Amino acid sequence: MSHHVRLGLNMGYVTSAAELAGNLALAQAAETLGFDAVWAAEAYGSDAVTVLAAVAARTERIGIGSAVLQIPGRTPAMTAMTAATLDALSGGRFRLGLGVSGPQVSEGWHGVRFDDPVGRTREYIQIVRQALQRRRVTAGGEHFTLPLPDGPGKSLVLSLQPVRSDVPIYLAALGPRNLQLTGQLADGWLAIFFDPESARVSIERIHAAAREAGRDPELIDISAQVPISVAADPHAAAARVRAHAALYIGGMGSKKTNFYHRIASGMGYEQEAAEVQRLFLSRDYAGAAAAVPFEFLDRTCLLGDADRIADRLTRLAEGGVTSVNINCFDSTLAERIATLRTLTAAAEKAGVAV
Question: For the chain, what are the domain ranges?
Answer without folding.
Answer: 6-227
